[in-house]
Every structure is written in C-alpha cells, then in structure tokens.
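ok posting inputs for the S-adenosylmethionine job
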Amino acid sequence: MSALAARRSNDSGREFDLSAAALSEIIGLVRSDTGIHLTDAKGELIYSRLAKRLRVCGLADFGSYLALIKSKPGIAEREEMVSAITTNVTNFNREPHHFEHFRQTALPDLVSKLRQGKSVRIWSAGCSDGREPFTLAFAILDAFPDAAKSDFRILATDIDKKSLATASSGIYSSDKIRHLPDAVAKKWFDNSGDELRVKDTARQLIRFNRLNLMGDWPMRRKFDAMFCRNVLIYFENDVQSKLFSRFADGLNDQAYMYIGHSERVIGPAEQLFKPVGITTYQFHANGHAT
Ligand SMILES: C[S@@+](CC[C@H](N)C(=O)[O-])C[C@H]1O[C@@H](n2cnc3c(N)ncnc32)[C@H](O)[C@@H]1O
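and the output
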C-alpha cells in the first residue's frame, strides 16, 4: 500500500488525521494570530484549507503540522496558515452602492480639500488583493486627475501576504475584470501578457502595507474616509466593538465609513457613527443625534 493510500485509510477516511484536540488548538492559534473566530463547526473548512499545506510540507498529520507552526523555524509556515485560513473574496466595484455614495457624497469635499492644498487620506482596511482600493483610486482620478500631484494617499492594508503581493503587482486575470464596462477596463488597465495590469496612474495613489488589525497600527495621520468591508464579520462582537472604537480614534470629523453588507457598527463607538446609507456611516467626533 502506498503512503498516500495508507494515510487515506485512517479511521476518519480522510487523507490526514485531524483530532478534536488538534482542531481546537488550530482554532485557538488562528484566533490569537488574526482575531478570526472559528468554531468546531468550521472543521471541514479548516481541514480542506490546511490539508493543502500539509501536502506542501510533506507532513502526515495535523499534530506534526501544529508542531511545525508553533516552532521558530515554522514562522513562515504560520504565515502560510494565515493565508490559507483567511477568506479573501473581493471584487472591483464590489457593493457598488458604496462607490456611488463615495463618488457623489464624499468625493466633492475631499477634492475640494486637495484643491486647497490640504492632505486627504483614505484607508482600505482588509483590502485583500487590492481590487477595493483600486476601485477607489479610479473614482478619485475620475474626479481629480491630478490627485497624484497633491497630498493624497490611499493606505491599503491586509494581514495576508499573498493577497498583498497580488495587490502590489496590480496584475489580474481577465476574468476578474470581465464584469467591468469596456470603457472602464480600457481606461484603467494595460495588457500584460494574458493578464491585465492596473495603470501606474492608479497604482501610484496607493500604499499597500501588511497590517494585522489585532496588532499595533503605526499610522499617525487621521483618515478622511475608510473602507473596512467584510472583514469584521469574522471577529467576535467584543473584538468588533473595540475595533470600531479604534477606527473612531483614527478618523477625521465627518469622515465616511463603509462596512460590509452584513456588518453594523457596534459598541460604544456606535454613537459616533451616524448611518447615512446602506452600511454607510458618517463619523461625528462629538457624537450624533439620532
Ligand atoms: C472577505 S475579504 C474582504 C476584502 C474587501 N474588503 C472586500 O470587501 O471586497 C477579508 C479580508 O480581511 C483580511 N483580514 C482578516 N483578518 C485580518 C486581520 N486581523 N487584520 C487585517 N486583515 C485581516 C483577510 O486577509 C481578507 O483579505
């Protein structure tokens, strides 16, 4: 019997043995590394995402994989584990109502600030492979083609190194832009072999950085708008609540905040974020009257 067949013949019928104890340890590590709250009910998802890593590492069971990611030499693999576990679903112009609101309501004031020589900062937190901040860059450049010559920057951050590598390259397969109108595709993308590359005019507006929302944030300047969409949904309520308070500390008064379709602002900061549209809020540093 081959080694693979021998592995498949373990009690669970799975290629690799994942004991309840190993599953709960993985859930604990994921939570402490990322804030992502998984339960035993996600066992199948955890198994299928990490089984690939066991194959790459040539390991026979999850016990050995745990030993590796807890060891010093296993630091790089621990990051691979984070990459494998994070859900990175995104799209250009995802949840289009946010970008409509941004273009129509937020942008005019931001452009006016830039024209006055003031700085404008936008944060895309949990930007995945960059399609969200690039959609923002396209909107900015449509309204203010000279944005790169002014004090304007989009900070785009994520915990997942692999997604950030794609984001920094600005290169996407054609299926990722298929839903965009031809005029938009032509305007913002160059051909790069079989793929498409976001034009430099848009790329130069964005700084992609690795940042774990659970850790320290090095940014000192406050933001004029923030997108943190479909990220907090993976965290428990008390973590979300703390993060909204931290976001509040990092926003300029009147800044717009966009969150994912199944998320809502919770916790003490709720009184500072006035709902102004579908999962769209305006930050009021002194609170808002409902
Ligand atoms: C579903 S994607 C959302 C992408 C984009 N915001 C959107 O809505 O299209 C969630 C992203 O959050 C990131 N993420 C998860 N936990 C994180 C953490 N603790 N710090 C920073 N990013 C995190 C994941 O890596 C993933 O790319």
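notes: The CA atoms of residues 218 and 274 lie 27 Å apart. The beta strands are 120-125, 152-158, 171-173, 189-192, 195-198, 206-210, 223-228, 251-259, 273-277, 280-283.
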